[in-house]
Amino acid sequence: MTQATLERRDGPARPAQPPPSPLLVGGVLGAVAVTIVAGWAIDFSLAPVVEQWPQLVMILEEVVHPEWAEITDPSSRLWTALKETAAIAVIATFVGSLIALGVALLGSKVSAPPAVYRVTKPVMAVIRSLPDMAYALVFVAVVTGPLPGILALTIFNIGIVAKLTAESIDAVDPGPLEALDAAGATRWQRARVAIVPAVLPHYASYVLYVFELNIRASVVLGAVGAGGIGQLIMLYFNRADYPRLAAVVIVIFVVVIAIDLLSQVLRRRLV
Amino acid sequence: MRPKPPPKWPYTVAGLVLIGIVLIAGWSLDDARWERLPQFPGEILQYAGQMLDGVFTWPGAHPEGQADPELTYGDWWLQSLRLMGESVALAWIGTCVGALFSFPLAFLAASNTSPLAVRVPVRLFFNAIRAVPEILLAVIVMLPLFGLNPMAGAMAIGIHSIGSLGKLTLENIEAVDPRPVEAVTAAGASWWQRIRAAVIPQMLPETVAFWLYRFEVNIRASAILGVVSAGGIGALLNRVLRGREWEWGGIMLVVIIIVTILVDQLSAALRHRILHGAEATAVAA
């Protein structure tokens, strides 16, 4: 091989790489600036990881010896709370999803008149912007126990399922709709015959998705007194009863993974 | 001849089974106190009315029944804004932590960039941390480490985000067009060169969009972490609403709604720009 072929003097020069776009540079610089400000706002520091390590090890030593009696005894507090959590999630998913289907029909320009969907959409955005815990806190003021948990999750579900379903309705195939319009169908008939059947698989997969979310959320909602396993988490945390807390973690872990797998299989069949 | 419509009974049976499950679930809740349900609309409306009173009172006025006579509604607004800012900041740092760790790990978990023996444990790791709710991570690991401050919340959110971002990122990696990858492989590229030249350019925009989306989710998640005092607006919201200080609580909820919607809109605009480029943005605007 000669020097000439290696340097390729005879070939065309390699084009220069274009400079990065100013937008990209600005975006990256902006993200770095936001990160610095955010880090300063929360006093970012990893020093405690080193300083407090012995304390964490102490707690983890208790955590790795879970109180197995909590798990093996079917009448323990853990199982009662778990049943409550499951019931809350089932009821909230069912009621919330049913209402959400109606709200979704009102929230898409395909199925609702402009005056209706222009109001529905922003109202739904406001409802979604509050975390589920805020609803639970307000409802707990009326009555404690599972009922405020169910209501909080129901509202949360309406927000999510209605938004996703409305987006699916927006994307529905216009062919059958035009056919129905040409045949003189009413809005209700259009929804019944063309829209709902078309979005049903998507809708069902969204419902499964929020059911998953609800299991996780109802775990947490108990922390504010809205029933379910979260109450146990707070109880054991406040007592620093780490072996029992570890038992709760194991059960939640298994339940969440099982529900994840189940709903993944179901969703794959649906869509 | 008109074809026979498909049978309807499977749907009827499925519906009845579902209703049955829901009824059993309702039955099993002994202390649900369903009889209190009719009272909810009235009481909630009453609370909402008091909240709106708080929101629409002139910020310079002094609320009644407070220990500090100098306190104004304006102080409540400022305090809510400051704490909501802390929530947003800790959600951002948490998202950064999640993005930083999930990005390289996802390449070890995708079927087109990693061998089976590496893939399986990394995927198990993603699924395992996704299954532990943030609040448990916070109380067991982060609060003992960082104490009752926003760093604990940020790290709990960050670790949890590694799981969900990792899963989404690896799906993005697996969805890349294989042809550029084959081309650079044919040209003799190493594993790293293949990823650098053929995989990352294809999956980066969608992955960054997912980071932004996760940031929105994490802002909401940070509220619950406040209940265990891991930083953000949640701790005060918990105290105020439990103390039935509806005017104060109303101001906090309004601040949460406004800041969340603003951040959502900003993030949605950025995501749209990242995914669809400048032309589509101009058309949409």
TrEMBL record, chain A:
- Keywords of the record: Cell membrane, Membrane, Transmembrane, Transmembrane helix, Transport
Subcellular compartments: Cell membrane
Q: Which GO terms describe its cellular component?
A: plasma membrane
Coarse class of the protein's main subcellular location: membrane
Q: Which PROSITE patterns match?
A: ABC_TM1
The Gene Ontology terms for molecular function here are:
ABC-type phosphonate transporter activity
Is-annotated flag, keyword Cell membrane? yes
Task: Show where the ABC transmembrane type-1 domain sits.
Answer: 82-263
User: Per the UniProt record, which residue ranges are transmembrane?
Assistant: 21-42, 86-112, 133-156, 218-237, 243-262
Bilayer disposition of the protein: Multi-pass membrane protein
User: What PANTHER family has UniProt attached to this entry?
Assistant: ABC TRANSPORT SYSTEM PERMEASE PROTEIN P69, PHOSPHONATES TRANSPORT SYSTEM PERMEASE PROTEIN
Give the family this protein belongs to, as stated in its UniProt record: Belongs to the binding-protein-dependent transport system permease family.
This chain belongs to the protein called: Phosphonate ABC transporter, permease protein PhnE
Species of provenance: Nocardioides luteus
What broad taxonomic lineage does this protein's source fall under?
Bacteria, Bacillati, Actinomycetota, Actinomycetes, Propionibacteriales
From TrEMBL, chain B:
Q: How does it sit in the membrane?
A: Multi-pass membrane protein
Name the chain's protein.
Answer: Phosphonate ABC transporter, permease protein PhnE
User: What's in the GO CC field?
Assistant: plasma membrane
* Single Gene Ontology MF annotation: ABC-type phosphonate transporter activity
Q: Which InterPro entries match?
A: MetI-like (IPR000515), MetI-like_sf (IPR035906), PhnE/PtxC (IPR005769)
The alphabetical list of record keywords is: Cell membrane, Membrane, Transmembrane, Transmembrane helix, Transport
Family, per the entry?
Belongs to the binding-protein-dependent transport system permease family.
Q: SUPFAM superfamilies in the record, alphabetically?
A: MetI-like
Please state where this protein is localized.
Cell membrane
List membrane-spanning regions: 12-29, 88-108, 128-148, 221-240, 246-263
NCBIfam families the UniProt entry points to: PhnE
Q: Where would I find the ABC transmembrane type-1 domain in this sequence?
A: 84-267
